[in-house]
Amino acid sequence: MAAVRHVEMLAVKGEVLAFQCKSFSSKTRDHRKGSEVSFYSLSFARDSQSFSIRDRNLSLIHKDGSAEADVVHCCSALDIQQRQKVPCVLLRLCKKRTSAFKYMLYSICTSTDAKLHAEFVLPYEMRDNISILLGPALIWSHENSVFYTSSQTSGVKEVPIPMTVNFIGELPLRRRKLVIQGAQNVPSDQSKVKNILYFIEDGRTLSSACLVPDAYSSVIQCMMVLSAEEFDGGWRSAVLAATSMKQLVRFENGLPLDVCLLPYEQPLSIQVIHTLKNDGLVVVTFSQGNVCAVWKDTFQVAGCWTGVRLLLVDDFMGCGTDQMLLVFESSSAEPLSSFLLTDLCAVTYSCCRSDGEELNSSDAAQENHLLTVQALESRLQSGLSGLEDLQRDVEVKDRLLQQSLVALTDLVSGREHHSLDPVYDDDDGAGDEEDAGMQTECAEAPLKMHRVWQRVIGQSLIVGVVLTTTSNTYVRFTLQIIKTVFQYCHAPCSVFQQKLFGESGRHCTPSCCGSYEARDDLLSLLALLDVWFFRLECPCHTLADVQGWLQESLRFERLEIDPRFTADPSSVRLFRWEQNSPFQGILSVYCRDELSLLHFLHSLCDFLPVSHDVQPLERPSVCAGSLAQTLQTEIHTVTQEASSVLRTDEGARRGEAESQTLHNLREEWLKERGRCNERLRPLLDETRYSRLIERMIHAQLDADEAALMEAPRL
User: Nearest 5°: phi and psi at 654?
Assistant: First the structure.
């Protein structure tokens, strides 16, 4: 009678393909034991929430009446003749009283047929680094040698380079795909090793540093290559590797990018699950039946399980995304009597598993859960503060509408109405009283000019005005920056750059230039430079340290006169980083041209992780535009009138009086220009204005009288 010894399973096209080994005793006198290997398929039924056999008739792969057959390894590989992935299985036949082992490599062509690709005999038992790859080709290692065979090779071939194998797999390249990564002893010094990549197709070798650094090669126990390509004589690659130090490391272009602490030791394999959330999962299997799942985007542990006999990944639900099937140890004869089918997102089905056993919380998982909860709490607090701000804005708008309606009603009815109350209120009582006093005083008292300063940068004249309103207890300063085109003077921006920074690039202190002067220089640059605003967001975790990157990586320096701004000592660029919440911030960039902006944005995108989002914001309108236009018109008027006066007087007077008059006019014009520099608008003396008007009236009367006397003669 035949007895089922064991069952191996493989995921194929959303179903589970099971390979079953049976042993039986022959009817001959020596009672030799025979065996057979067959296969069948199981599919998941949502109604019963279990796996059922699709066809009760078993399909036979191999049968031998004098040897015991075992399944050594099974997986899916690309058949280069059929140009599609097919399930493959490696069988081992062993006869008693012999020391040789016979191996056969089959592929499952249809639901009932199997095809033999390779058959060979080895004097030893195959145990280490067994892989079925493109071809299908069988690759394995024994001691310090690597062997391979397929239907295209005549027998078993040996790799000519002895090495200690770390990884056997496929690279997503066009020509060379089958690769072996291992350590080779240096011939000149046996104490040193060299980590190499060996391509089986053409025998080419190169350094494995293009995938992982040499320092990690000795501790890597399993690896998965996500992407690889040759680019400009180098390599671009993305690799996941599990080390003996309980770490899952993500490498990009041969450099470590991220690390996740694993809860178990002795990792065996790595698989990627494409789910609907968080860019998928990375699942690591360990010895002793342990499994750990890690979110691919955040690189945090998502779940852990123990007592797992087998892990399969495929679209068992037929929903378009992957799920992982965890098959647990069970005393039942059924192959899928205890399992968990889940993607940790929206799909979870279990059989013979209690709710408490679904997810094993390891120390690393608990720590990651705590960090996740803290991040969610901070996001919730940020959202609540934003909601409170919106509620305050709504209250302010409602209050303003009510006051406007009352004022409009009083205006229509002809009644006297009072001015509107302050719209924005602070939380502090003292601040409320002070702001209320400030609002009423600003409405009653006229603004006075406290100080005027100007800077000439390039072809631009920057004029700053400090306006003040004075009361018994409160003084308010308002600063307006006016920028207008000025064609008569020229000063490079380096002058202001040297005043903001010393010769060695250090900030200017009040001892080397007054605080007023340094602040005026900063405000002049802010008025001159164009500004762009960018919102940085990361919905998954906290933002990267943008301010630290500006100062440490780009070597930009904060201004002592205003620490909110960071300046580039090598060019005229200013930056201001305002982080509104742990997940959002506003970056303001002040520069003269868009090319410089694009260079900076390129560096910023290289620094930010993929999870960050950068969005440009609309630039607000500049309130100083009308003032600058007024000043420009006034300058044009003054220069034009002065020129016309000079031309008129030069044509009317000649000789010695002409030069003296021109000199006097120039002196008068210089005085007038000095007055314009000291005040925002030039003032006219009242006595002089009255005399001028009186002279004009007398001249008009004399002209009228002369006209009347000439009238009778005509």
Answer: -130, 170
**Distance separating alpha carbons of residues 696 and 702, to the nearest angstrom:** 10
Q: In whole angstroms, what is the distance from residue 598 CA to residue 135 CA?
A: 48
Q: Is pLDDT above 70 for 656?
A: no
Cβ 573 vs Cβ 588: under 8 Å: no
pLDDT over threshold 80, residue 649:
no
Rounded mean pLDDT of 676-683? 55
439-445 mean pLDDT: 44
The burial class, CB within 10 Å (0-12 / 13-18 / 19+), for 595 is exposed
Q: Which residues pair with 29 in a beta bridge?
A: none
Residue with tokens 């792969």: 61
Cα 99 to the center of its chain, rounded Å: 58
Residue 299 vs residues 220, 267, 378, 612: alpha-carbon distances, Å = 18, 17, 20, 15
pLDDT higher than threshold 90 for residue 574: yes
Q: What's the CA gap between 359 and 490, in Å, rounded? A: 72
Coil/strand/helix, residue 516: helix
Please tell me the distance from the alpha carbon of residue 336 to that of residue 406, in angstroms, as a whole number.
77
Among 25-34, 275-284, 437-446, 586-595, the minimum mean pLDDT is found in 437-446
What is the model's pTM? 0.52
| pLDDT confidence band for 481 (50 / 70 / 90) | very low
The distance in angstroms from the start CA to the end CA of the chain is 153
DSSP codes, 295-363: ETTT--EEEEE-SEEEEEEE-SS-SSS-EEEEEEP-SSSSTTSSEEEE-SSS-EEEES--GGGS-B--H
Residue 665 CB contacts under 8 Å (≥ 6 apart), including other chains = 645, 646, 649
pLDDT over 50 at 620, yes or no: yes
Residue 337 structure tokens = 């009597």
Name the phi and psi angles at 368, rounded to 5. -65, -35
Report yes or no: 70 and 77 within 8 Å, Cβ to Cβ: no
At 114-151, the pLDDT tens digits run 889 889 999 888 888 899 988 899 999 988 889 999 88
pLDDT at residue 507, as a whole number: 39
Of the candidate ranges 110-114, 370-374, 458-462, the one whose mean pLDDT is the lowest? 370-374
| Residues found in the chain | 714
Give which of 20, 11, 21 is closest to 44, Cα–Cα.
11
Question: How many Å apart are CA 609 and CA 606, to the nearest integer?
Answer: 8
Q: How far is CA 389 from CA 97, 422, 575, in A?
A: 85, 18, 26
Rounded to whole angstroms, the Cα distance separating 86 from 135 reads 10
Residue 500: predicted pLDDT: 57
Say how many CA atoms lie within 13 Å of 320 toward its Cβ: 1
Instruction: State how far the Cα of 71 lies from the Cα of 286, in Å rounded to an integer.
Output: 21
pLDDT at 419: 47
Per-residue b or e along 461-482, where b marks 16 or more CB atoms closer than 10 Å to that residue's CB:
bbbbbbbebeeeeeeeeeeebb
